[in-house]
Amino acid sequence: MRYSKLFGKTVRNAPKDAVLESHKLLFRAGFIRDLSAGRYLLTPLGFKVFEKIIKIIDEEMQTIGGQRVSSPTLHPLELWQATHRDVAFGEGLMRVKDRRGAWFAIGATAEAVMTEFVKKFSPSWRDLPFVIYQFSQKFRDELRARGGLVRVREFLMKDSYSFAADEESSLKCYWDHFHAYEKIAERLGIKVIPVEADSGALGGDFCHEFITPCDFGEDTILTCECGYRANKEKAEFVRENINLDEEEKPLEIVSQPEWVESMDDNVKHYNLPKSRFLKNVVYKTAKGKIIIAVIRGDLEVNEVKLTKVVNEGELIPATDEDLIKMETKPGWVHCWGHQALYIGDLSLQTVKNFIGGQKEKTTDCVNVNYGRDFTCEVLADITEAHEGYFCGKCRKGKLKEIRGIEFGHVFKYDDFYSKAMRATFTDKNGKEKFLQMGAYGIGIERAMAIIVEAHRDEKGIIWPKSVAPYQVHLVNLNPKSEIRNPKLNADEVYEKLQASGIEVLYDDREEVSAGEKFVDADLIGIPVRLVVSERNGDKIEYKGRDKKESELLDLEGVVERLKA
Amino acid sequence: MRYSKLFGKTVRNAPKDAVLESHKLLFRAGFIRDLSAGRYLLTPLGFKVFEKIIKIIDEEMQTIGGQRVSSPTLHPLELWQATHRDVAFGEGLMRVKDRRGAWFAIGATAEAVMTEFVKKFSPSWRDLPFVIYQFSQKFRDELRARGGLVRVREFLMKDSYSFAADEESSLKCYWDHFHAYEKIAERLGIKVIPVEADSGALGGDFCHEFITPCDFGEDTILTCECGYRANKEKAEFVRENINLDEEEKPLEIVSQPEWVESMDDNVKHYNLPKSRFLKNVVYKTAKGKIIIAVIRGDLEVNEVKLTKVVNEGELIPATDEDLIKMETKPGWVHCWGHQALYIGDLSLQTVKNFIGGQKEKTTDCVNVNYGRDFTCEVLADITEAHEGYFCGKCRKGKLKEIRGIEFGHVFKYDDFYSKAMRATFTDKNGKEKFLQMGAYGIGIERAMAIIVEAHRDEKGIIWPKSVAPYQVHLVNLNPKSEIRNPKLNADEVYEKLQASGIEVLYDDREEVSAGEKFVDADLIGIPVRLVVSERNGDKIEYKGRDKKESELLDLEGVVERLKA
């Protein structure tokens, strides 16, 4: 490709609101533009990288026996409603009504569609297991779209779905994907850490996220020396016993100054650590139902864990107005007695004689004991894990926090979708059984951003060979015909390289200085730069983008090196 | 691929509402399923064909220098509004509001998006011309979705866009595409006739449709021996003079029985041919504005032509209620005097002393002459062409009608979009000028249907080699291990063919009879069928899907034949 004719050239400045280096570099080097927040256009350079990422993923999906299919973007809303995924996705799922009044979800994922697809062929045990996959545009109406290609509102996703007759073969599909994802990451030049994760709005109970460590990532994972790795939404940890050897004392209503409202006020007033207090955090569901999370004072509620326990879709933090409607206010919420669903954290069982729980204008109570004085409808793990907590698996090591970006996600659903949608197969005895399902996703835009985060320097991108838009960046330093290098014609070098099957980006611009061409080559980041100039005579300067030194080779030498 | 493990097997019956053979066959053979009306799922077999069609189109786009890009599906609605395309597309364009209240169009085509894309890089004359293209999902909220893959609500489209500095280089891009489309059709095994067409809601003034002749097609084209070819919405023809030598007589109000309302009533009452009467056809715009089309009694209004002349978006036929509001009724509409925009057809100039135009309870008028007694705001070609009319180009030949399906469409827009969107480039003298634009589209689902319409027999599909899902369909007639052919192991044949780089669909099913396997092979329509059976010993039966006779070859002979 002649750079002079390439649509989408480099620019000096990145957008002012760009935070991640991958966003700045991909913009400046001319790979992407935003059409609106979170919706990106890919230039010809950007699409070249995209194609290579897609090809690698496609090959690995074929290797594990995946069969490529395609499905519509607009899904009949009933398919989402069958498993209440419309509620679980909340406002993140876009909906649209057609001119005949039928409602559609704009595909955010395709579990239900694929389940419906499979139903249409009434499979028998002979057909199972199989994996179908597609590359298709997905839509998530994110409240905030930030970080360039990392969190977007519309993106291409490789999503695959496995259908199996039993647990064993379903798990085989799961681990096939797990290993394929490791392989894909390796081929893309990305380091990933598979971690146990929460499946969130997608349903199911067993899943892994593949996280790329990155200081600016949105995800936090917790790791232990014992090998335990989980994301913050899933990580289990040991809640230390605070004072379980203490004897239970009788509950007492005590007088308390009105100013004691927050946890800090309490610590000050009683001169005791936060862990001795009860804390309430109030949420509401989309339908307005009040949820009160009760937790030990030194711990934080993790909304994802809580959402999963409540299982009624998105939770929204209650506002002061909500509290007024409950006839209370911040700091005054009671651990019992409100018209609400109470969810208690496991930490309520680690303290004797809690303080708090019934704050009024001039009183509160002390010596509150869970089980004796109050109980919650559900007692579960709703606490956010943090660095330094004891690992929930080995119960000895201390958890460490790593920030990162989610590269891929694998889910084992069992019959979560097939039961709700009556998706069955006929077994050897002619009996109808529910299909065992798994789903597996990689976002392509995000993969591109992750690659750039991992492969760059202060001058620009350094593409791994496997996904570079071109193999070589050929720079002609004397493109004007009147001063053309008499010993080596760059146009001919371009033609010959292409004839050898090498993908060449050829900077043939006449109006641009040598310095600018070098700056652009470093910014665009193609792995090898070749320079044809009068100074080099009949030799070509060969330089790896990641190397400091260059070499002079003849054309044959260049081709040989590139083909090696 | 082992057929036993393929997702999406054959079935006996087509859906009851299927009309086109391509729909029935693609369904029965297991290439497609509908998720909802007009929105299709592609099975692995269907996607294989899709991939091959895409590859052929992609190669031809590369050959003419196209640069592949990608753009979001949701377009900020403002981009559509800039050229009033939102109005022109009417309800066919789906719209959706995001959670922050921003309106988006769900991409029906991408002219405005691509214009915006190009603007973001402020091109100069040095960058021009260039062609960018994509394969992306398009959405049209069709009132009726029928004919399987021919008229769908959602489809993959190859859409390309050319941007040029002047008329000449813009036209070069146009004809490059024109010839590329002929080449693509040829490679897909499709016969196409390029015809002059109307650009409809897309804007612009110069375009060609590529029509595949098909008796069940939705489009009608008119051809003349002189070479003129146009679709019904565009075709120009000569309006014969009816009685221009007659002298203009004075307009007269005459009494007329109340029952004389329709054209047939008039013919009966006056005993004169339809061509002597005035006819009014009433429409309204989306905003409720009344349009009255005035035309010679023997001609029909073509809504597309009329819509284009009115240029206020979709036109809807007026209802009886609309006429009541106008204080008239069917057959009583006047050729003048209503609160309406009057559009007259050129045929008003071919008759002297028209009858009609002012029907009241007991009167009408005669000797009405256009120009003298009434005029319309616009006089234009709004008549539907028909077989037998005189060609508008040579004015001698008679037009012939052919039915067909639109395979592709090329548009020359000049500065229709760039002017409205202020999309400019810097010319050699540093002056800002409007970009000259063209756009070019091929729908992939429809291409697949057209191929099947053209390549089939009573037994099933007969795929052209270029797009067949697999090159050979290998049938094992003795798959059960206990009765396996001792001289030739079909599993090994399968492996060896694959190792030779041949794409094989291998029917290894144990539970299916030989007869059923043959029926399935004919239905699926892979170009070559190979049979391994005990009867054939160490030879393989080789039969072309389009041939009656088979041959016995050894494996080497088969490979040689396939590689030829």
TrEMBL record, chains A, B:
The keyword Secreted does not apply. The keyword Thylakoid does not apply. InterPro entries: aa-tRNA-synt_IIb, aa-tRNA-synth_II, aa-tRNA-synth_II/BPL/LPL, Anticodon-bd, Anticodon-bd_dom_sf, Pro-tRNA-ligase_IIa, Pro-tRNA-synth_IIa_bac-type, Pro-tRNA_synthetase. It holds the Pfam family tRNA-synt_2b. Keywords: Aminoacyl-tRNA synthetase, ATP-binding, Cytoplasm, Ligase, Nucleotide-binding, Protein biosynthesis. It comes from the Bacteria. It catalyses: tRNA(Pro) + L-proline + ATP = L-prolyl-tRNA(Pro) + AMP + diphosphate. It is found in: Cytoplasm. One of its GO terms (biological process) is prolyl-tRNA aminoacylation. Signal peptide: none annotated. One of its GO terms (molecular function) is proline-tRNA ligase activity. Homodimer. This is Proline--tRNA ligase.
